[in-house]
Design brief:
6% of the residues lie in helices and 35% in strands. The protein is mainly beta. The protein is globular and about 60 Å long.
Length: 279
């Protein structure tokens, strides 16, 4: 897992909270891991793709060199980690208006191949290939979720709800939306609507998609003075972390009592995040 602190430094951490790699010099976003989690792809603040070696003392490698603001995004390993799937914007002129298509390339940035046929100002982003390598689901920006049969199709078809509504996946630089199941039969997608409502969907390969019928409350911590994480913070040692102030403790207790008073009878489970994220 990778988190970014307030100094725009990326920290790759194990599930137990121990840090195994620091990515500095460029702000990492759109982070994806290879199959054994020894390598990570990410997009830097310069909109190029980078490769980081997590278990080796090797420098992070810049794979691409964009020109004319032809930005890269959404990289991920495919084909047994031997190739990279990504999106790239191509401009009509130097005015940030243009087309975004999906591409593949070798790990060293060579042998780039365009795999979709977006035209004009169409933008295909968030590509996610199934583990079996035969399907790609992606977001046709401002239109909806699409799937295509790879490598035979260039555009595919829109995936809609049973009521015929399109699905607009949430776009974020620090959490990878659209995630395939290990067997490649299903994927999970979240959607933000009306600036306050989130919908969660499960997609499967026969083009069926269903909304997960649940009420989920996401809460951030109460008042904890300061910004970001201390340089020596350890997820296993509370003394090294930013902690709640006295007011924060009171605030969290009040909030907990309110939640249980209003909807305690509807709660089917409580989960806490193992890791903190800075955005």
């Amino acid at each position: 897992m990778c988190i970014r602190d307030s100094n725009n430094v990326g920290h790759v951490i194990d599930q137990d909270g121990s840090s195994i790699k620091t990515i500095s010099g460029i702000r990492p976003q759109d982070i994806a891991f290879n199959s054994d989690q020894t390598e990570a792809l990410f997009v830097g603040s310069d909109d190029d793709i980078y490769l980081a070696y997590l278990n080796e003392d090797e420098l992070t490698v810049r794979i691409t060199q964009n020109t004319n603001n032809e930005w890269y995004s959404d990289p991920e390993f495919i084909s047994d980690d031997n190739k990279i799937l990504y999106a790239q914007r191509k401009h009509f002129s130097n005015n940030n208006v243009g087309t975004i298509n999906l591409y593949t390339m070798d790990r060293d940035g060579k042998n780039k191949t365009q795999i979709t046929d977006a035209v004009g100002e169409e933008k295909f982003i968030l590509p996610r290939m199934s583990p079996s390598g035969d399907k790609i689901i992606y977001y046709f920006k401002n239109v909806g979720l699409y799937e295509l049969n790879y490598p035979n199709e260039k555009r595919g078809a829109m995936v809609s709800t049973l009521g015929g509504d399109s699905i607009i996946p949430e776009i974020t630089s620090y959490f990878r939306n659209i995630k395939w199941s290990p067997n490649g039969e299903k994927a999970i997608i979240w959607e933000k609507k009306f600036n306050s409502t989130y919908n969660l969907y499960v997609y499967d390969k026969n083009k069926k998609i269903r909304e997960i019928n649940a009420n989920i409350i996401f809460l951030r911590h109460a008042i904890a003075p300061g910004f970001g994480d201390p340089e020596d913070f350890n997820l296993k040692d509370c003394e090294t972390q930013r902690n709640l102030s006295e007011d924060g403790v009171k605030q969290s207790k009040i909030l907990g009592n309110v939640i249980f008073f209003i909807c305690g009878h509807m709660l089917h489970g409580l989960m806490n995040s193992t890791f903190g994220f800075s955005t």
